[in-house]
Amino acid sequence: MAVATQQLADKNAAKAKINPDDYRMTLGEHLEELRVRLFLALGGYIILLIAAFFFGDTVVSYFCLPVVRALGENNINTQLIVDEAGEGFMVFIQISMISAAAVGAPWIAYQIWQFVAAGLYPHERKYVTKFLPLSIALLIAGMLFVYFLILPWTLSFLVGFNNNFQIPGSFVDAETPPAFVDSSSNPIKFPSFQGNPKSAANGDVWYDAKLKRLKVYVDSQVRTISVNGNNLLATEIKLSSYIDLVMSSLLIFGISFQLPLVVLAVARIGVVPLETLKAIRQYVYFTLAIAAAVITPGGDIPSMLGLTVPLILLYELGIWLASMKPKTIQPA
């Protein structure tokens, strides 16, 4: 007991010896530090941006993977549409810039932290370094959650729902052949492949069962013809609109997953007592559901539910963290 008391006294004495003037910088020093950190952060970003231009098309393909799978599962042409000549190029630039920012985020964050930390006391820096790893982990978890679960689930449901609208029989009767076709003649049959054949001659035609396309080999190139089902609705997804949906979803889910830290901070600072946070659960749940409906990209019910349920669980995680003793959540 005496040893613990002595250690606490030594710790308080060390804090008392901190001279605020030792951690102050002049305005000129702040501006010089800011200039250096901005130069390093921007320089690193530009280098990564140049590198991203070599992989931008591949990254775009990965971004489109959830919607391509959803279309393929419903036997719909997996090509996305563009209605402007420069749309594909602008999406390429957008994705390259975002990819460079994502990869360079640790370096940029480090430069920002070096500038901010220069004006903080040691005990203030301690709070940032304590919870920063958890914040980054929650951000990444939110983005992975939306990419691997929410987007595939939502797109598959919505595309499949559109695919259920059939053309009324009064307009098109698939069972009755057109009057100008001789019923005794045989239909043309195309060979079917799971992709492309190993070799093809000029003029060859086949059906790609994997991509749901009719393909023609012309002038040493494979040309495609979209093949859609006998549905009332033809699902065609615009590239730029889809990319905007993905980016906004990643951002919203990543930020929303910071909720445990918000709850922890509110409880620890004393803005709202922990017991009050526990007592108002049902009202918080309702508020989170309303917030999810407002901020969810697209405004569809599957995405709203996909955000509401994790937010409720994250709120409970925040309460659990706040109920722990401070020493149990300090990093090793």
Q: Can you offer a commentary on this structure?
A:
One of its GO terms (biological process) is intracellular protein transmembrane transport. Belongs to the TatC family. With 332 residues, this protein is mainly alpha-helical. Among the domains are: 192-226, no CATH class; 258-332, no CATH class. Helix content is 61%, strand content 5%. It is built from 11 helices and 4 strands; from the N terminus they run H-H-H-H-H-H-E-E-E-E-H-H-H-H-H. The protein has helices spanning 2-16, 27-52, 56-73, 87-103, 105-117, 122-163, 239-256, 259-269, 274-279, 281-295, 301-323; strands at 192-193, 205-208, 213-218, 221-226. The chain has a 4-stranded mixed beta sheet with strand order 1-2-3-4, with no helix packed on it. A hairpin with a 2-residue loop joins strand 3 (213-218) and strand 4 (221-226). Helix 3 (56-73) packs across helix 4. The longest helix has 42 residues, at 122-163. The two termini are 24 Å apart. 17% of the residues are buried.
